[in-house]
Amino acid sequence: MARILICDDQEMMRDSLAAILAREGHEVVATGDGPAAVSRLSTGRFDLLITDLKMPRMTGLELLSEAKRLRADMPVVLMTAFATVQTAVEAMKLGAYDYIQKPFDGEEIKLLVDRTLEHNRLIRENATLRSMAEASLAPRPLVGDGDLMREVKRKIDLVGRSTATVLIRGESGTGKEVVARAIHAASDRRDKPFLAVNCAALSENLLESELFGHEKGAFTGADKLRRGRFELADGGTLLLDEISEIAPALQAKLLRVLQESMFERVGSSVSQQIDVRVVATTNRDLETEVENGKFRQDLFYRLNVVPIDLPPLRHRPEDIGDLCRHFLSLAARRCGQAYRHIEPEALRLLTRYAWPGNVRELQNIVERAMVLETEPGLVRASTIEPWLKPAKAPSTAAVDNLAGKPLADIEKQVILTTLRRFQGHRVKTAGALGIGVRTLGMKIKKWKEEGEESLVGVEAEVD
Ligand SMILES: Nc1ncnc2c1ncn2[C@@H]1O[C@H](COP(=O)(O)OP(=O)(O)OP(=O)(O)O)[C@@H](O)[C@H]1O
Ligand SMILES: [Mg+2]
C-alpha cells in the first residue's frame, strides 16, 4: 500500500496505469501535466512518482528536479519512448530511480513499482536505524499527516520556540507523551533533560519529594538528600503526566513554581531558582474538575497557556495507514523480520473501527498480528477481525447520570457547558450544537432573566 503520483499527458496511458496500480491496493493520484503534479507534491506526501518524459508545459526532467527539491526522499520513475532512452539515462544521473520503456505491460510496471518501493523502504529503514544508533534517545516520530495531526504539529513548532507552559489534552493512548517529547525536541532545550513524572502513580507525599526533592532527615526514611525532578530537569522540560490527579496541597506548590520558578526541597527553607518548561497532560476535562472544586482554577489558567488537543484516533482515520506501517516496521525491526504487506481489506477494517484505546490499541493489534501471522510480515483481515471489539455506545456513564432528568435541564446544562468550552463564543457554541445563533441568544437571555448564576462569568465574554 503506497501513495503513488502519476504524471502523463496521454489520458489513456494515465488511466490504465492508475487502474493497474490501484488494483494492487495502492492509492493513486493521476495528473495530466507537470505543474499539476508539482502542486500535488507540495501539498501531500507520496511514496513514488511515475512520470512521462515528453510532456507539454513542463518536461519530465523539469518535473524530476522539482520533485527532488520538494521531496528529496521520494523515488521517481520515468516512462519513456524508445527515442528518449538516452534522456532517461541522463535523468538517472539527476536522481531518477529507474526508467521503463513504453510500451510496457502491467506485470512489468508492477514489478518495477514493487522493487522501487521496497528499495526505498530499506533505505529509509537504514537511515532510521543509523540515526537511532546515533542518538539512542532519539525523539519518537509523531506519525500522521492528516489535517488534524498537521494542526497539532503546527502548534508543536510554534510552542517549541517559546517557554510557555503547554497543556496537552486527549483521551488515553492518543499520543500525549509523544507530543510532549516532540515539543521538547522542537525547542532549543532539546540537548537538556526531558523528564516525566506520572502524578497518578504516586501518593501525595511521595509525589512531593519526587517533584521537589528532600533534605536528608526531612521525614522518616529520608536518609539521604534527594534532588527532585524540577531540579534535575533544570534547563530542560518536565512532563507532568495526568495532572488532574495531583492533590490540592501540591497544586498550590506547583502553582508557585510555575509562577515564580522558585521552589524548596521538602524539609528545606532555602528557595532555589530553576528554569524548567512544564508540559502537562490530562485525559480528564479539567474545566469540569475546576467546577467541581477538585482542581484549582488559578493553576488551571496557569497551565492552560497553550492548550493542545489531541483528537481521538476515530476522528482521524486518514492517519491509520501511516500509523500501521510505522508500527509494523518498528515491530519488524525488533523481531528481525521484514514487514511486507497489509491487506487492503485489513486496512479497511482498521479504518472503520472506533479505537476506544486510540493509537496504543492500534499499536497492540499491529504488533500482535506481526507475531501471530503464519506468514511473517503479512497482516491479514481475517487475523485481525476478531480483535476489533464492536464499538460500545460512547460514555454510557455520562448518559446514565442524565437519564430521568427533565429534558429542559439537560439542554440547559449541555448548552452552558458548551458555551464555557468555547469561552462564551456564541457562534462556535451554536455551530457545535447545531442550533441557530439567534435561538442560542434567546435561551441565554431567558436564563439570565431567571438569574442563572453560571452565566455571570460567561456573560462578560459574550457581550
Ligand atoms: N502520532 C503517533 N505517532 C507514533 N506513535 C504514536 C503516535 N501516537 C501515539 N503513539 C504511540 O502510541 C502509544 C501511546 O502513546 P502515548 O503514551 O503518548 O499516549 P498517551 O496519550 O500519553 O496515553 P495515556 O493517556 O494512556 O498516558 C505509544 O507507544 C506511542 O509511541
Ligand atoms: Mg501518557
From TrEMBL:
Modified residues (4-aspartylphosphate): 52
Entry keyword Transferase: no
Keyword Transcription regulation attached: yes
Coiled-coil ranges per UniProt: none
Domain of life the protein comes from: Bacteria
One annotated GO molecular function: sequence-specific DNA binding
A UniProt-annotated Pfam family: Sigma54_activat
GO biological process: one example: regulation of DNA-templated transcription
Domain Sigma-54 factor interaction: 142-371
Alphabetical list of PROSITE patterns matching this protein: RESPONSE_REGULATORY, SIGMA54_INTERACT_1, SIGMA54_INTERACT_2, SIGMA54_INTERACT_3, SIGMA54_INTERACT_4
Domain Response regulatory: from-to ranges: 3-117
Keywords: ATP-binding, DNA-binding, Nucleotide-binding, Phosphoprotein, Transcription, Transcription regulation, Two-component regulatory system
The name this protein goes by in its record: Sigma-54-dependent Fis family transcriptional regulator
